[in-house]
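Hi L.,

You mentioned the student needs an example of a multi-chain input paired with its predicted structure. This one should do, with 267 residues in total across all chains.
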Amino acid sequence: MNILEVQGVTKTFGGLTAVNDVTLEVPREAIVSIIGPNGAGKTTFFNLVTGIYSPDRGTIRLDRRELIGLRPDQVVSAGIARTFQNIRLFSTMTAEENIMVGRHTRLRAGYLDAVLRTRRFHSSEEEAREVARVMLDFVGLGRWRRELATNLPYGDQRKLEIARALATTPKLVLLDEPAAGMNPRETEDLKALIRRIRDELGVTVVLIEHDMRLVMTLSEHITVLDYGTKISEGLPHQVRNDPRVMEAYLGRGAAAGEYGKEARPHA
Ligand SMILES: Nc1ncnc2c1ncn2[C@@H]1O[C@H](COP(=O)(O)OP(=O)(O)OP(=O)(O)O)[C@@H](O)[C@H]1O
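Structure written out for the whole complex:
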């Protein structure tokens, strides 16, 4: 069964159609990716799913519940967490505090519920601290608990953001370019972490990513956007060999030089 069903969403900014009639179905406990050249509409798509923007048309359902019209915090409560393309940590707070501030939504039954039920907490702060501890351990940052976020190595800061998202006990997590700026070793670590998020926590993962090696080895399904439109989707090898996808990437490479959008052959 699909956990997320997006049907025909469109979002325009003035004259620009950033997302054009996009349909996407994400099976429960899948790891899927959205790829496409710069400006293809990927982040806008995440912003639509998370309630930052409202689409002009279309429907977005999480477990059959319509999300359009919900505020971003209500979308989090409904079960969707995300990370951002650029690191958005509070640099003057510790790793632990960064997770505690993210966790203001109600605790639902989920992987944390099982851990927390075995203990009695005297305050919600104590409980939030325990959640932070569990999530830091899960992403392998237990030793950085009391360290300022800004002092963590770059790859660990990105993991901290993931831990913060997971602390809201989502059903679905959206990761916007999680490997951006990572070295190959950090990227390998990240890949293992994303698999564990799905395998051990049962959380469905949708990622936007430019690192094609990561995308091709991690994703069970890939959707390709170009100029806001879905131009291809399928298994990694199907997408990799799709001439429309190659053309989109090569065309956009050319667009960075002399060619404008109009000069570029359309997929
Ligand atoms: N708030 C906004 N107002 C106006 N235009 C916007 C807004 N947000 C996005 N756009 C435009 O929509 C298009 C899609 O942008 P978006 O950031 O979704 O692309 P992307 O695929 O995530 O790109 P990248 O890979 O570079 O992050 C771009 O042309 C962008 O300039």
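You could point out the following to them. The pocket of adenosine-5'-triphosphate is lined by residues 13, 16, 18, 36, 38-44, 85 (CB under 6 Å). Residues 91-169 form one domain.

Best wishes,
N.
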